[in-house]
């Protein structure tokens, strides 16, 4: 009997050791596998993290996770499936107005704007993706518009940035326009990652679609007050002023007084928008590619 008990005890010990060994093996097999870094980053928020001043993910809310653009009010805004979580779903009457804009956005000297958009061709005017208004300027400080012109496969995109030619002469009412030979192809019907940058030190503008930097003429990429060959000087750093609000999906004219009713061509953005970001620096090629790939990978 003692011998049998010893055998049973030994069997129990061996079985326990066997199962413990198996559990260790299972734990090792099922342990999380680290993501492969992209461009040296593990997730999208690591990209140029020190320069990220505003970020809207639109995961069921309109909050800026950096708390630079706050006190928002949404009009007829709903949410759809985004590139990463949920996304802002626009309509013919949708927009968001934010009452408080921090100095980190107001005092931008250089800028990068990054967003995912999914939209269809439209007619009748220009849809506003976003706007940083100016109290005494019809056009505002900074904004991006999609014109409703051109073939159904192309997008005529306009970016406006407020700059100073001299300390006392503001530059406004001018656009960086992707039209004519520089119209953006194949932009409708699917998610597209759009990044545009302006470097205030070098006065250079760049635009990227799905991580690819577009080859644009020097007349677009290099921003001068006049022809440098005849003594013209560069525009230099951004010079936002009299900032009143921040708007996504509409124009400041949609806010009413003091502007009254918007003109008929001023259209709300009707598509989807996701992962909207503003940086206080011009992102590098590597940073843009990494941001595109990481967000596409939902990281």
Describe the structure in your own words.
It holds the Pfam family Laminin_G_3. Residues 1-20 form the signal peptide. InterPro entries: ConA-like_dom_sf. GO terms for molecular function: carbohydrate binding; hydrolase activity, hydrolyzing O-glycosyl compounds. This is Concanavalin A-like lectin/glucanases superfamily protein. It contains four helices and 19 strands. By secondary structure, it is α+β, with helices and mostly antiparallel strands. The strands form three sheets. Strands 2, 5, 7, 8, 9, 12, 13, 17 and 18 form a nine-stranded mixed sheet that branches. Strands 1, 3, 4, 6, 14, 15, 16 and 19 form an eight-stranded antiparallel sheet that branches. It has a two-stranded antiparallel sheet with strand order 10-11. The longest helix is centred in the first third of the chain and has 29 residues, at 2-30. The chain is globular, with a radius of gyration of 26 Å. It has helices at 2-30, 103-106, 218-221, 285-296, and strands at 52-56, 69-75, 78-81, 86-89, 95-101, 111-118, 126-134, 137-147, 154-160, 163-166, 169-171, 176-178, 184-185, 192-199, 204-209, 212-213, 246-248, 266-268, 272-279. The protein starts with a helix and ends with a helix. Mean pLDDT is 84; it is low at 23-29 and 163-173. It has one domain: Jelly Rolls (Sandwich).
